[in-house]
Specification:
- The complex is a heterodimer of chains A (318) and B (325).
- Chain A has helices at residues 6-29, 42-49, 65-70, 75-82, 115-128, 150-161, 189-196, 209-226, 253-260, 264-274, 280-303; strands at residues 57-59, 138-143, 166-172, 175-176, 179-180, 201-205, 230-235.
- Chain A is of the alpha/beta class and 318 residues long.
- Chain A has a single domain, classed as Thiamin diphosphate (ThDP)-binding fold, Pyr/PP domains (Rossmann fold, 3-Layer(aba) Sandwich), CATH 3.40.50.970.
- In chain A, the strands form two sheets. Chain A has a five-stranded parallel β-sheet with strand order 1-2-3-7-6, with helices on both faces.
- The radius of gyration of chain B is 20 Å and the shape is globular.
- Helices cover 38% and strands 21% of the residues of chain B.
- Chain B has helices at residues 6-20, 31-34, 36-42, 54-65, 81-92, 95-98, 128-132, 145-157, 207-218, 238-248, 263-272, 297-301, 307-318, and strands at 2-5, 24-28, 47-49, 70-77, 108-113, 138-140, 162-167, 174-177, 191-194, 199-203, 225-229, 232-234, 251-258, 284-288.
- Chain B has two domains: 2-177, Rossmann fold (3-Layer(aba) Sandwich), CATH 3.40.50.970; 191-318, Rossmann fold, CATH 3.40.50.
- Chain B is an alpha/beta fold.
- The longest helix of chain B is centred in the N-terminal third of the chain and has 15 residues, at 6-20.
- The chains are: A alpha/beta (318), B alpha/beta (325).
- Chains A and B meet through helix 5 and helix 6 of A and helix 4, helix 5 and helix 6 of B.
- Chain B: One of its GO terms (molecular function) is oxidoreductase activity.
């Protein structure tokens, strides 16, 4: 595997997220706390985050593993956090649900559905008022469930009227916890709502990492040039359940099969293979490299101690 | 010393802090409209009208506070804070802790509450204890213009989210305010506006004046009452309450808010625990009823514990045989 390219890097980035989350699922089977995985949504995280740069800030949610890893988070510190260890990004206080890493610009992760949307305009306002790095923008990741919260509209309205440098990224993964989104909204509701607020809106195949990356890069460039917000809806699918364990007995098998056939990792690998830029040995080498990183991360996390009960009330007040 | 109303004292503190620190931001529904002078002095970036949407006002303040600004948000009437509760309680109150101390939320949320205008329960609800119960938040409710100014200055400078309640019945009451620009009152320190030997009256907000009126009336009975104004409800100045109780041995807690799980209950629990060795009589609470505030001025006044009720309660306690030998 001599060749490196952004496309191959995106494939490896998605493989890393998949391997990390499969490791969390395995840990759960061994008794570790459950998690909300983003298996099947890796192209959204990698495509958007690679369109951002170090000046930018990211807000995410309970399904954050992909965003954090795409931003360069250390999988060892992530697993340590999920296991409640002191070397986790939050010192073992977050668990899997609200992992922030300010050092990476991943701030104010919220597991209240829509909480990230309520805070994102404030982060973008501070950026606009000169409190962030010059030229930086803010990206907020949320799902189709959060789009049903009232604060979705409040955040879009404020961002448009205050011309905030904010990229809204809706990962429409078809499921709102245990309810299919078409039970709660019409098919094209999200982009139509966003268009009603009067900002640039793109709807993209969220399982095609190159399409995601291209659209995100265009919208980010527009925000940097013009200042105002933009909206990206990514059509994707939550391949595993809402929260481990989840037998997904409520999921239509035909729907699930149709989306598995569009798996974002397999599509990127096939694209590169068809272009003659990746062979079976190359893919195996990438997978081996990722597996080794996750194995090392797991060993690091498991060696990290638990915080003592005497630290229970630390960090409540500044 | 100048004389001004509590409302004017709040505006003075805001002006002083905005002049002192360029990261202080003032926003809410109508703040720029009502304070064109502040827009002129500090700029439209820092004095902002917002949509009439409390959830996003508060959420924006939380995001901005974690990103280098110090927002002061005017949520108008305290019941509107329930729309802002997610951002204040779940985000500002918890994300410092859950992130292992990565973020601070230096913000102040202003809300008016209490009897005085007969505006009814959707504009007047003394819900301060709801926020006292939420970890990560501080809660202030001043009783005088001077305290409002000094405590608001401290709240704006504090690194934590502060809920700052303004008692509607006090907004237009004048009082003396020191001229010194740097009159900052630390959060978490109670005041003792009247010293006494026989009974301690603990209160906050407008019922501090009720207690002072009762204390004056009790003099005729030969009862010397001490009045403690909590000023900050969280952190609570437990030492000040215990100090006073050690002196008097009797405690009446007075609040306009309803009683169940309220601040007065917390003070009573403090007395029943660490204050127990000092008690010479049962602890009494006088509170508003478990009822929404009526949109009727006369009925609304009946929610507020009166000086007469406080005096009757004190006379009953002083007549109680001592508990301890």
């Amino acid at each position: 595997m001599a060749e490196t390219s952004p496309e191959l890097a995106r494939l490896e980035g998605m493989l890393l997220i998949r391997a990390y989350e499969e490791q969390l699922v395995a840990l759960h089977r061994d008794g570790a706390p459950g998690t909300c995985t983003s298996v099947g949504q890796e192209a959204c995280a990698v495509g958007v985050v690679q369109a951002l740069d170090g000046r930018d800030r990211i807000l995410t949610n309970h399904r954050s593993g992909g965003h954090l890893l795409a931003r360069g988070a250390d999988p060892g510190r992530l697993i340590a956090e999920v296991l409640g260890r002191v070397d986790g990004y939050c010192g073992g206080r977050s668990g899997s649900l609200h992992i922030s890493a300010a050092e990476l610009g991943v701030v104010l992760t919220s597991t209240i559905v829509g909480g990230e949307l309520s805070m994102a305009p404030g982060v973008a306002l501070a950026q606009k008022m000169g409190r962030g790095e010059p030229g930086g923008i803010v990206a907020v990741f949320f799902g189709d469930g959060a789009a049903c919260e009232g604060v979705f509209h409040e955040a879009l309205n404020l961002a448009v009227h205050w011309r905030l440098p904010l990229l809204f990224v809706c990962e429409n993964n078809q499921w709102q916890a245990y309810v299919h989104r078409l039970e709660t909204m019409s098919d094209r509701a999200i982009s139509a709502w966003a268009e009603g607020h009067g900002l640039p809106v793109r709807v993209v195949d969220g399982n095609d990492v190159e399409a995601v990356h291209g659209a995100a890069a265009d919208l980010v460039a527009g925000i940097r040039a013009q200042g105002g917000p933009a909206f990206l809806e990514l059509s994707t699918y939550r391949q595993r359940g809402h929260f481990e364990p989840d037998d997904q007995a409520y999921v239509d098998p035909a729907e699930c099969q149709a989306w598995l056939a569009r798996d974002p990792i397999r599509r990127q690998a096939e694209r590169l293979r068809a272009a003659g830029r990746l062979d079976a040995a190359g893919l195996a080498a990438l997978e081996a490299r990722v597996a080794a990183r996750i194995a090392a991360a797991l060993a690091f996390a498991q060696a990290s101690p638990m915080p003592g009960p005497d630290t229970l009330d630390r960090h409540v007040y500044a | 010393m100048s004389t001004m109303t509590l409302e004017q004292a709040v505006q003075l503190a805001l002006r002083e802090e905005m002049g002192r620190d360029a990261s202080v931001l003032y926003m809410g529904e109508g703040v720029a409209t009502k304070h064109a002078d502040m827009v002129a002095d500090f700029g439209a970036d820092r004095v902002r009208n917002t949509p009439l949407a409390e959830a996003i006002i508060a959420g924006t303040a939380v995001g901005a506070a974690a990103s280098g600004l110090r927002p002061v948000i005017d949520l108008l009437f305290a019941p509107f804070m329930t729309y802002a509760m997610d951002a204040l309680v779940n985000s500002a109150g918890k994300l410092r802790y859950l992130s292992g101390g990565q973020f601070s939320f230096p913000l102040v949320a202003l809300g008016m509450t209490g009897a005085g205008w007969g505006v009814g329960g959707q504009h007047n609800h003394n819900l301060e204890a709801m926020f006292v119960h939420a970890p990560g938040l501080k809660v202030v409710m001043p009783a005088t213009p001077a305290d409002a100014r000094g405590l608001l200055k401290a709240a704006i400078r504090d690194a934590n989210p502060v809920l700052f309640f303004l008692d509607i019945g006090l907004l237009h009451q004048p009082g003396p305010v020191p001229d010194a620009v740097d009159q900052v009152l630390p959060l978490g320190e109670a005041a003792v506006p009247r010293s006494g030997r026989d009974v301690t009256l603990v209160s906050y907000g407008k019922t501090v004046a009720v207690c002072l009126e009762a204390a004056a009336g009790l003099q005729a009975d030969g009862i010397d009452a001490e009045v403690v104004d909590l000023r900050t409800l969280k952190p609570l100045d437990e030492a000040a309450v215990l100090r006073s109780l050690a002196k008097t041995g009797r405690l009446v807690v007075v609040q306009e808010a309803s009683g169940l799980c309220g601040v007065a209950a917390e003070i009573a629990a403090l007395a029943a625990g660490r204050g127990f060795p000092f008690l010479q009589a049962p602890v009494a609470r006088l509170t508003g009823p478990d009822a929404p505030a009526p949109g009727n001025w006369a009925l609304e006044q009946a929610m507020v514990p009166s000086a007469q009720r406080v005096m009757e309660q004190v006379r009953a306690l002083v007549g109680t045989p001592a508990l301890a030998a």
